[in-house]
Write a structure and sequence with these properties.
Length: 168
């Protein structure tokens, strides 16, 4: 596999996770998109230096992401008044590396299952669990009533459970 193919695969696999992480910290779609581009520019630039004996691709990529975010905050480009850099984390340090790896693998499997859902179902699950939106907010965003958002969510979760059970 060429470096270009590797970067393309990494982009497809990690872009939404990186974007979500950046957006969660920045709360600006434009800044998150800009930094996402910057992260992948750095990945392209540094792909030759990646060493699988030192870290997995995900750890390597999220280290680049974290450092890019911290640089962004330090540059003064952010609207945030103060930033606690120690809280810009990606890895749960309260668990060992084995459990952290298992969690990551489970999350990857869950993400793959989520991709198999229809777009509306996937959007509702992401809005509910990733962004922690209320059903009222989800309804407003998607042009649904609060009750309809709840029903679609319940059905989407059931579909996701069935898909997950089949592949795990």
């Amino acid at each position: 596999m060429t470096n270009g193919e590797i970067v393309e695969e990494l982009y497809l696999r990690y872009r939404s996770k990186i974007y979500g992480y950046l957006y969660n910290h920045l709360r600006s779609r434009e800044d998150a998109e800009d930094l996402l581009s910057e992260v992948f520019a750095k990945i392209v630039e540094k792909i030759d230096s990646y060493d699988s004996s030192k870290a997995t691709y995900s750890t390597w990529i999220f280290t680049i992401t974290r450092n890019t975010l911290i640089s962004f905050y330090r540059s003064g480009s952010s609207n945030a008044e103060t930033v606690d850099y120690d809280n810009v984390t990606l890895i749960d340090e309260s668990v060992g590396p084995e459990e952290s790896f298992l969690r990551e693998e489970s999350m990857n499997l869950l993400a793959e299952c989520l991709e198999q859902l229809p777009k509306r179902d996937k959007d509702i699950i992401i809005a509910r669990y990733y962004y922690d939106y209320s059903f009222r907010k989800i309804g407003e965003l998607m042009g649904l009533t609060e009750g309809n958002a709840r029903v679609i969510h319940t059905r989407a979760v059931e579909k996701l459970k069935k898909i997950y059970e089949k592949v795990s």
